[in-house]
Amino acid sequence: MGIDYKQLVIVAALAAGAGAITGCESITGLDEFRLDSNGSLSCLDPTGFSGRGCFSCEPEDGTELRNACTDARCTPFDNASRIPGFTAGMSLGDLTPAPMAPPPSGGSTTTPTTNPPAAVRCADLQPRPVYLYGSTALNLALRTLAQAISGTATLVYQNDTSCLGLDAILTGITRLKGTAQYFANGAPAECEIEGDQLADIGLCDMSPVSCVPDFAGDPNLVDDIGPAQVFMFTVPNGSSEESISFEAARAVFGYDSAGVEPWTDPQSIIRRPPTSGNQLTLAANLDLPHQYWRGVIKQRSSEVKPALLAMADPNRALGITSADVADEADSRANLRTLAYQHQGQSCAFTPDSSLGSSDKRNVRDGHYELWSPFHFYTRGQNGRTQDPFVAEIVSYLKGARSLPNRNTDFITTLKQAGLVPQCAMKVTRSREGAQMEPFQPTNSCSCYYESSPPGGSVPDSCQTCNTSADCGDDTPNCNFGFCEP
């Protein structure tokens, strides 16, 4: 016979005093929390999250990470009152998913726009061009990197959806064509691709199996993991909505009959195409195959913001986007990221610890579910990139190699783009939608990441240092000017 953890907490609250009962009765999603040797829930603080309860011990798995006690702002989404017919433990499996349909108005093809020929041939650029293709998430970082290594290589890139970034390396069918971008003296410029050009590096938010469901491995594909890419549900600032849950998002995007107000009009719901890393990551996290999603398809991430702002009723507008778009200054002035409450989670969290912050703390410690590791794909064997020159560029992108220009701060650049370097993460996952696990990077940079702009501040727990001799036993390493684990 299973133990009723909720009942155990209520009994404990009764023993402590009747005043605690009201808060304890609202605890949800805590069915996997550990018992101590006496069989009591010593790891549960029933007063946390406004009486919903939080996990007070060191988290060991995804459920405990999502419900761990924190001072970050949480905004619960009430499934029972918001989703018609919802009851605790309810599954949407009995409903009929909205069938896959041709892209609604606003959709576009996956073929990159071909502009009139540029004056400069990409092949003539000096120093040697390195060709990148795929996700837009790293554009700001690419600009910074291009400046830092301008004496070594010229980065030439074209943006498209994530899975086409993988295909550009895996099959080579997807290639750079027409006009590509590069940076000259720190400013964007254009060059002409004559015919077509194989990509050297594929930029992708996704693991291979998410783009190619029957993928069984390829000995010639090298997959290097980069920073964490963050995704979100977004509304115009004129909307009164503040949060959304796993169950509500599934109902809104995948079921015609669920009727979760105010998101009931498919023409006011914005999504991305099936090869988009944004679309596929959220599909994996919601366990809702992309072919069943409804809403207006926007091919490029840059098209989502204007589409949401053009809605006549901002309360009905809802879109999916990524932090590289949502964290832009203009986006923050016009759009708002909804707090997200995952299945089994007792409260909803935004990626950042508070409104207006840029610390991505809830992503980094596991309270925010909607993220995936970025992937750099190259050609090679046995996990080693075939071209050493290309491998060197990837090592810069991963943060594994110091940039030759010491005045360039790549950690700050990633933060400005809404990305989180591995050195600032405290959780990890094998792929998008997979269970999160606690993580300790080899060279932590959490304090430096939080202190960096935008919105940087030094947490009270962070100690500055000149050398590791300045640090204590708990944080013995002086990394980036701070004592770190």
Summarize the structure.
By secondary structure, this protein is an alpha/beta fold. The protein has 17 helices and 20 strands. The protein has helices spanning 5-16, 21-24, 48-51, 62-66, 79-82, 139-148, 162-170, 208-211, 246-254, 277-286, 304-309, 323-326, 329-334, 361-364, 388-398, 410-416, 446-451; strands at 44-45, 54-55, 129-134, 154-159, 176-184, 187-197, 201-204, 221-236, 243-245, 269-271, 296-297, 318-322, 335-337, 339-341, 371-381, 384-385, 427-428, 437-438, 477-479, 482-484.
The overall strand count is 20
Give the helix proportion (percent range): 10-25%
CATH superfamily of the largest domain: Periplasmic binding protein-like II
Alpha carbon gap, first and last residue: 42 Å
**Strand residue percentage:** 15-25%
Q: Stretches where pLDDT falls below 50 for ≥5 residues?
A: 1-32, 101-114
- The structure class reads alpha/beta
Number of domains: 4
CATH T-level fold name of the largest domain: D-Maltodextrin-Binding Protein, domain 2
CATH architectural category of the largest domain: 3-Layer(aba) Sandwich
> What do the pLDDT scores average to?
84
Q: What top-tier CATH class of the largest domain fits best?
A: Alpha Beta
What gyration radius follows from the Cα positions, in whole Å? Answer: 23 Å
The dominant shape is globular
Largest sheet: 10 strands, mixed
